[in-house]
Design brief:
The protein contains 1 helix and no strands.
Length: 48
């Protein structure tokens, strides 16, 4: 029974680690997209 809980805990921990890694990746991607959007806005403003 103890072994079952160890696997359950390991699986639960792995899911949370993957979830937070995904959130960090998503946050980084959002930051990159915001910077790219700002750059594009500046380029459009210069052309007008």
């Amino acid at each position: 029974m103890e072994s079952t809980f160890s696997y359950l805990f390991a699986g639960y921990a792995a899911i949370w680690i993957l979830f937070f890694a995904y959130l960090l990746r998503l946050r980084r991607r959002e930051k990159d997209l915001r910077q790219e959007l700002e750059l594009l806005r500046d380029q459009v403003a210069k052309k007008q």
